[in-house]
Amino acid sequence: MSNSFYGPMADVTQDAGYDEHPPRMGFFTDTSVCIGCKACEVACKEWNEVPEDGISLSGMSYDNTQSLGADSWRHVAFIEKPLNPTTTDLGLPGMGPPGWDTHESGLPSGEDQATESGDGGVRWLMSSDVCKHCTHAACLDVCPTGSLFRTEFGTVVVQPDICNGCGYCVPACPYGVIDVREEDGRAFKCTLCYDRLKDGDQPACAKACPTESIQFGELDELRERAQVRVQELHDKGVDVARLYGADPDDGVGGDGAFFLLLDEPEVYGLPPDPVVVTRDIGSTWKHVGAAAGALFAVGVASFLGSRGPR
Amino acid sequence: MVPEPEFESYYGKQIIKTPTWKSPDVPLYLFLGGLAGASALLAEGAALSDRPALERVARGAAAGGAAVGTAALVHDLGRPERFLNMLRVFKVTSPLSVGSFILAPFAGLSGAAFASQLTGRLPRLGRLAGAGAAALGPPLATYTAALISNTAVPAWHEAHRELPFVFGGSGAAAAGGLAMMLVPSAQNGPARRMALAGAAVDLAAAQLLERRLGMVGEPYQQGRPGLMMKAARAMTAGSAALSVVGGRSRVVSAVAGASYLAASLLTRFGVFEAGIASAKDPKYTVVPQRERLAARGSAKVEQPSAARA
Fold it and tell me: CA gyration radius for chain A?
């Protein structure tokens, strides 16, 4: 079994022990057409009966969900950046400054991401984040109870009847997705609607998305579709478009849920170069072994050269 | 000082999640695992070299440390009644799984060895159990480093090479320290030597850790965890000096031993809190990953679209 811990892997489901299995399923979230309606968040909560996660106003644009967690399995991020910060705001409705050109300003252009608002132009980025269902899923690797497992669809799911709330998956995830539900004690995250998939249906969020920003399907096909979409955007001059999590050579062996982004990942709260913890597990155990050996030697040496009690 | 690196974030929010592990449960367990593991080694040496007072204290520390440590771990679970699920599977990719299979037999064996010594019953089986505990002791004292470094928490993960030595050394210092406190000088020579060697390993590994980690190692030097680490280092060094100068004095030895113990406890709390601090600040997640990408990007020549420097 090559690359079980790190690196590209052609068939993650087979590596997990399934001889016969359906194709690997996933999400392609094309953020360039996301309108920030949060229908995905609502549909997910409704279908999966995810509890309320605190009702508060964050001050972070329209984002009051703030992050993924035990009670938020889809999270729509809102980023507003002034296109021309030097423009004086007269508080009047109107267009952007005369001669305003996104190409010259070095900022992204294209109808999909730039919207002029009354206050001199704001670039809106919206993105529906979700569990990445990694090829090398750290949460699954570190889970000591076997509660987290790989499904026949290649997705990663928690079994709540086994989870004992040890919390190891929480700091293991390089994306900060999974978390422990405090009042419950166990860990929860997106299941990619495992129950719906078993019935041949698509996940609730994808079904609810009105713009097809969230696309569900066979991962191989989604990756091809995403390449075409990026090329299309580049041809339109949107050269900031890039795929995130689509590369099987990345630090997690590629994501089962990947994205088309219009800015650097960290702008959306995503790690720019995530790496699965198991990449270093060999080195970690080697050093533990050496340290344990050293401790044993210290123990033996402490008794050498002594003639016993005086 | 190095200037603050510039980086972008989503409203300044952290990227990875803060570990949900509770304090003092987990740092206390990290300390007790080290104390118990090294004590089991000390106990076996004491038994072989006929030092009954040292043997009794060390066996007690091994059994007690394992018992209280296990209780702390179970208490930390979100569903404590399901603690036995830890033994449902065995996974080398999960140090918590491997650790459960070290801790469970260690706790049983060290407990049996201590009980046998206290009651005088089944002495041969007791010694056999003690030997088993001694074999599992060093792994118990050091695997906890893998436990925390096998996470995405930057200050822990990047320290996966040094932390096992910090923990092993600190465990030896704690075990030696406890015996120095409670065992008459005539029998605690090996405890003094074990503590001294452990302290040296601990200090050297911690020094190396801070040097090698650079920016990601900041949390070990700043704020509350920074203070704890500094205090621990000073106390460890102080204890070592005291024990070398006056280790044969019962009082000096006891003071040095207590200080070793406290330093070991502080080290675990310092390391634990440094990790928490590094998880909460997106800087420690984003900047090293950016640097990695930049290094990779400059390796490839044609990358004009990666305009940001």
Answer: 24
User: Closest-CA residue in chain B for A162?
Assistant: B85
Distance CA A131, CA A67 (A): 11
Beta partners for A216?
A27
* A115: phi then psi, degrees, rounded to nearest 5: -125, 125
Q: Is A121 helix (H, G, I), strand (E, B) or coil?
A: coil
Q: Residue A247, Cβ neighbours under 10 Å: how many?
A: 15
Q: Give the minimum alpha-carbon distance from B58 to chain A in angstroms, rounded to a whole number.
A: 12
Do the Cβ atoms of B163 and B209 come closer than 8 Å? Answer: yes
Our measurement of the distance from residue A196's CA atom to the centroid of its chain's CA atoms, rounded to an integer in Å, reads 21
How many C-beta neighbours within 10 Å does residue A45 have? 19
In this structure, the number of other CB atoms found within 10 A of the CB of residue A230 comes to: 18
Beta bridge partners of A80: A124
Q: Report the residue from A267, A270, A298 with minimal CB separation from B198.
A: A298
**Half-sphere exposure (CA, 13 Å, Cβ side) for B307?**
7
What burial class does residue B264 get, using C-beta atoms within 10 Å of its C-beta: 0-12 exposed, 13-18 middle, 19+ buried? buried
pLDDT per residue rounded down to tens, chain A (310 residues) = 468 899 999 999 999 999 999 999 999 999 999 999 999 999 999 999 999 988 889 999 999 999 999 999 999 999 998 775 544 445 544 454 544 444 444 444 444 444 444 556 788 999 999 999 999 999 999 999 999 999 999 999 999 999 999 999 999 999 999 999 999 999 999 999 999 999 999 999 999 999 999 999 999 999 999 999 999 999 999 999 999 999 999 999 999 999 999 999 999 999 999 999 999 999 999 999 999 999 999 999 999 966 555 4
The encoded tokens of residue B137 equal 């002791």
List of chain B residues whose C-beta atoms are within 8 Å of the C-beta of residue A296: 41, 138
Of B198, B163, B148, which Cα lies nearest the Cα of B177?
A: B198
Provide the β-strand partners of residue A157: A149
Nearest partner of A76 among A13, A34, A115, judged by Cα:
A34
- In single-letter form, the type of residue at position B25 comes to D
Contact A71, A44 (CB under 8 A): no
Mutate which of A57, A162, A288 to test chain B, going by most B C-beta atoms within 10 A? A288
